[in-house]
Amino acid sequence: MLDNLQQMVVLATVAHEQHFTRAAEYLGISKSQVSKQIRYLEERLGVQLVQRNTRSVALTEAGEQYAAFGRQIVETMQDAEAMVAGFRNEVSGRLKVGVAQSFGNAQITKLLSTFQAQFPALELEVHLFDHRPNLVEDGFDCWLAIHEAPPEGMVARKLGDCQFKLVASPSYLEAHGSPKHPSDLREHNCITYQSVQRTYDQWPFQRDGSEQSVTVRGSYRINNAPAVLEATKSGVGIAYIATYLLDSEIENGDLKVLMKDWKPTMKLPVYAVYPRREYLAPKVRHFVDFLSENIRVV
């Protein structure tokens, strides 16, 4: 029975890592031992579970379904360990975190050393990306997301709202003039953020209780928020940019705030998202509490 459970856990790990070497590293065993356990499992069940080639590993249909049961065993074990760790308030092991890329670079990575110094027994694994992950399948303990709608079935703790400013460089304004009203933006080259999942070409504003949203256009669309900032500083056009990206660009004159009587009203919520579990591991709880106390989104 114990050998059978071990083989299921090994297969579930191979399915998650999509690689024998990474699965071995995660489990703390040799690559040959991983291969041996998979081979024993296939021989015992009488069916092929894994398709191997020199570069990657793919599971057969039977392998995918069998690995899902193994994943349930792993999750049950993690819940049990989290329950016991909760009694000791122990913060240790690996914490796998996903972070929205631009926000992570601007706000989070510089805080991680402080967090890890508080919990030296903790091993941090941080992934920066802008897509929407599957937290359970991808093995994330927590995802720091800038998203209007966090995934259903997960716990989403709101940490704040990203604010925005309308800015341009002095060189752009000297060449093209400064807009006075949201409708003037239709006559300007506006730099917009655009990705597979989102496009921000609707810029909302408010003045004295009056709201107005304008659809902007321009010759420059970028799928990376820091690149929007750099393009704006270089004089390409006007940007509606998240304030967390700004450091001293306004103070030192690299950028000018425009239409100060019209307030940008777009707000993007920042969430700490994690799988719903009966027992929340102390490492996740402390990490989310740390973020709530330390990140700056205004």
From TrEMBL:
> Gene behind this chain?
dmlR_15
Which PANTHER family does UniProt cross-reference here?
Answer: HTH-TYPE TRANSCRIPTIONAL REGULATOR, TRANSCRIPTIONAL REGULATOR LYSR FAMILY
- Which keywords label this protein? DNA-binding, Transcription, Transcription regulation
Q: Tell me if Cell cycle is a UniProt keyword of this record.
A: no
Could you say which residues form the signal peptide?
Answer: none
| A Gene Ontology BP annotation from the UniProt entry | DNA-templated transcription
Family to which the UniProt record says this protein belongs = Belongs to the LysR transcriptional regulatory family.
Q: Which residues form the HTH lysR-type domain?
A: 3-60
**In Gene Ontology terms, what is one molecular function of this protein?**
sequence-specific DNA binding
What the entry lists under InterPro entries is as follows: LysR-type_TF_proteobact-type, LysR_HTH_N, LysR_subst-bd, WH-like_DNA-bd_sf, WH_DNA-bd_sf
**Organism in which the protein naturally occurs:** Grimontia celer
Q: Which residues form a coiled coil?
A: none
Name it: HTH-type transcriptional regulator DmlR
